[in-house]
Design brief:
heterodimer; A: 356 residues; alpha/beta; Rossmann fold; eight-stranded mixed β-sheet; 14 helices; 12 strands; 22% strand; B: 281 residues; six-stranded mixed β-sheet; four-stranded antiparallel β-sheet; 36% helix; 24% strand
Chain lengths: 356, 281
């Protein structure tokens, strides 16, 4: 498979939850691609649909949710058309998964080694002894020191970082092509986070693994991703190579998120904030879903009446915003060095209202 | 907001000296002989109207030290000396202790578990006033409403239950509760860690406004050094139960004043949104 061919290709994915207050569209026409040996990051705030997107890819959307439209292709094969039995072979087999909270994702009553062995034997026909040896190999590859001893320990005897390494060993056990990592370092300390991200990057480079990284933390994206999709209220609002995204963020939401991220060296002072809070998806705002919080285009009718399509800002850089002119002019005018949204807003009424 | 204000010894509001906390190793007080010293001789000073940030990784003893300073741990486990506005916290009794409890409030990381789901926001905010027998019922209700308004919540909030609020709003309720009894000190234990990026800034700015307006002192427990740098006057770095480094925020986080290897490792582990950065912890 060449670099050009996407490993995972998601097109116009739509996932709807039928709730008492009507259908809630958690994923609304999302498209992206993950290439082998590359990391694609889906970034956004809680409730923006990034985890629902990952669960849709895995066929794990919990009822009353269901995928109502779109395509999910893994190396050309349509996963949405697969039956549950074949999908189960894909999950854990061709797609490895790492979740946020390793304390709850691991089974507390089994030793770690046994859980890795189970992951191996579910997907490969190997004897118990071979599987055990492989499990210890996997733990070692995931950076677990003294894997033979650790394999005999139970999850509660391990630190958060070690537990996450065990999760990674399990995810890699069956030799997957794609790894989905949902907030893999959110529960960890900064020093541990750094090591786990380094490990994921090394594995991606050495195994040609495609990684779908889901995170709310732009710093994690800047550290680890090759390309990025920014989600807001169930929709993809901007997608680009990581370099372009951080150098020339086009969407006002992306720019706001970037200015919210405090950097060391900014000194004492106030924090730049995005006014308001993400909308309730059962009654999303009309038009562009970000328009009630948007600092740009307040008097543009289109923002509140029509959904902006994803348009090219520059080659490989797409943005869904009526205020992006689409010829690159806006993007270069909004270079982050100027940090247009970073002016701390002292007017209290504006920044202290995070109700919906 | 000049970072280098002069301070004398008596502008200390809360001070710990040689604070030690020994907890039962299996977390069951009184039932075990195995113990672990979680806080190992900590000296800390929170100055009036200022913010001290206590940073370090999980398990370093930050929260335990803070709780011990407010005498929220069983006395048998705590030793050393803690003073709050000159009076000895660990030996204070009766009225003195109650006064101290009113003047030192706390905000927790997770507003979902720190707010009683069966109480309305109005009752939650009025509860500390009731506990300290402040005002009449009507006065307490009015004060709760005023506090909820002050933290930027909509007018009908007092009658709503915690689950009806978003995460950021719940943390505002927790802040309203903390400031209702007019404290001098608020211990903020990871106040924004569970919040979304775009909401964090709103909450931190609210805390900064309240500090200026009410002359509050903060002890901020945090792990995000970029936040600490913007928010705190002084930093204490805690590692394995000890303070390994302490000083002004600017000195330690900006001017390369960090000397302890652990502080340097923390600084090197920070990820930034700036794509190009030096990196090697």
């Amino acid at each position: 498979m060449t670099d050009r061919t996407p490993l995972l290709n998601v097109r116009d994915l739509r996932t709807v939850f039928d709730t008492d207050s009507g259908p809630v569209c958690a994923v609304d026409g999302v498209s992206f691609a993950v290439r082998p040996g590359r990391t694609f990051a889906l970034v956004g705030e809680s409730g923006c649909g990034k985890t629902a997107t990952a669960l849709s890819v895995l066929g794990l959307v919990p009822p009353p949710g269901r995928v109502t439209a779109g395509r999910v292709e893994l190396a050309g094969e349509d996963l949405l058309a697969l039956g549950e039995r074949r999908m189960r072979a894909v999950r854990g087999g061709r797609i490895g998964m790492v979740f946020q909270e390793p304390a709850t994702a691991l089974n507390p009553v089994f030793a770690c080694g046994r859980q890795v062995v189970e992951a191996i034997r579910l997907h490969r026909r190997v004897g118990a002894r071979r599987a055990k040896a492989t499990a210890i190999d996997m733990l070692a590859r995931a950076g677990v020191d003294d894997p033979t001893r650790r394999a005999k320990q139970y999850p509660h005897q391990l630190s958060g970082g070690l537990r996450q390494r065990v999760m990674i060993a399990m995810a890699l056990a069956a030799g997957p092509e794609l790894l989905i990592a949902d907030e893999p370092t959110t529960a960890l300390d900064v020093t541990t986070q750094w090591r786990i991200l380094r490990l994921l990057r090394d594995l991606r480079n050495s195994d040609g693994l495609g990684v779908l990284l889901i995170t709310h933390d732009l710093a994690v994206v800047a550290d680890s991703a090759d390309s990025v999709g920014v989600m807001y209220a169930g929709q993809l609002v901007e997608t680009a190579d990581a370099g372009a995204m951080f150098a020339e963020p086009a969407h006002p939401y992306t720019r706001g998120l970037l200015s919210c991220a405090a950097r060391l060296g900014d000194g004492r002072g106030r924090f730049a904030a995005i006014a308001g809070a993400p909308p309730d998806l059962s009654a999303p705002p009309s038009g562009c879903r970000f328009h009630p919080r948007c600092p740009a285009g307040r008097d543009d009718q289109r923002c509140s009446s029509a959904r902006p399509p994803l348009r090219t800002v520059s080659p490989g850089h797409w943005c869904a915003c009526w205020q992006c002119s689409g010829d690159g002019a806006n993007a270069s005018a909004s270079r982050r060095s100027e940090r247009p949204a970073a002016q701390p807003d002292r007017r209290r009424g504006q920044e202290h209202t995070d109700d919906t | 907001m000049t970072p280098d204000r002069q301070h004398s010894a008596d502008d200390a509001l809360l001070a710990a000296c040689g604070l030690r906390v020994t907890l039962p190793a299996d977390g069951r007080p009184g039932l075990s002989r195995r113990t672990a010293e979680v806080v190992r001789g900590v000296d800390l000073t929170v100055r009036r109207g200022r913010t001290l940030a206590l940073v370090g990784e999980s398990g370093a003893g930050k929260t335990t030290a803070a709780r011990a300073m407010l005498r929220l741990l069983p006395e048998a486990h705590v030793s050393g000396r803690v003073t709050f506005d000159g009076c000895d916290v660990l030996t204070a009794g009766g009225r003195q202790l109650r006064a101290m409890r009113r003047r030192a409030q706390m905000i927790f990381q997770d507003p979902v578990s720190s707010l009683d789901p069966r109480m309305t926001a109005g009752r939650i905010v009025a509860e500390p006033l009731l506990a300290h027998r402040i005002g009449t019922r009507r006065q307490r209700r009015l004060r709760a409403a005023a506090m909820l308004d002050r933290v930027g919540l909509p007018g009908d909030s007092a009658a709503r239950y915690p689950h009806e609020f978003s995460g950021g709003q719940r943390q505002r309720v927790a802040i309203a509760r903390a400031i209702a009894p007019q404290p001098d000190l608020v211990i903020c234990d990871e106040p924004v860690s569970s919040l979304d990026v775009s909401i964090r800034a709103q909450i931190l700015n609210l805390l900064a406004d309240l500090q200026e307006e009410l002359g509050l002192s903060y002890l901020l427990i945090a792990h995000d050094l970029a936040v600490v740098e913007r928010f705190a006057d002084e930093v204490a770095v805690m590692y394995l139960g000890r303070i390994v480094e302490t000083g002004s925020t600017r000195e330690i986080l900006r001017d390369g004043g960090a000397r302890h290897p652990y502080t340097q490792r923390l600084l090197n582990s920070i990820l930034t949104v700036d794509p190009i950065r030096p990196h090697a912890p």
